[in-house]
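Consider today's protein:

***
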Amino acid sequence: MCTRYISPEDLEIENFWKIDRKTNDRKDWENLLKVFPLSLASFIRRVDEVDFARELVVGQWGMIPPWSASHIPETKPKKGEEKGKRLSTVNARTEGMEKSPTYKDAWARGKRCIIPAASYDEPNWETGKNVWWRFKRADGAPWGLAGLWNTWTDLQTGEVWDSYTMLTMNADGHPLMGRMHKPEVDKVTKLPLPLEQQDKRSVIPLEAHDFDRWLTCTVEEARTMLKVPPFELFDAGPVAG
């Protein structure tokens, strides 16, 4: 799963995705560069169900479930509890998202988005400790990562929040993504599980010719676009310093 990335400069997003600042409804145009869970950052979505135009908006990285009492994602409170436990929603597993209480509404309603990223980081544990690797596109273009978005209303203040999540899928056996993340171990033997049982994860980059299709196509078509990226797409290596 991805828990940190760098957003491109605003002008680069505007130019690459052909978004006109003058007609866009984004609330602020600050440079939102280093992005971590619960940060506010830029994502691209379809303007509405009729208009195919793209708009750039700022939302929270970490989908806010509809039952949350605050913008901090949480599980559903148990009987007798006022609040649930902190929930990580920066990444959504594509396997089972149709049934997920947090993601199923956004997926079913086609609330798909594109997350611009100059690069993103993943942990590599091959040395026995975490070494962060940085992932850029080999062609120098920014990433357009597949995501979902939704809105949440604060019942106390009436404030409406946009939030989003990155989609991930299994990457076991991938020559690059299969090397990332801390190996899972058997709960009894404490030994690493076989590679085919590791459930290594990958974000899902979209190619430029698929941007509009991802934002506008049917749910069935969108499912066919969920693919692990080919090795040749990457320029990746340990983060300097």
Notes: The chain has a mean pLDDT of 88.
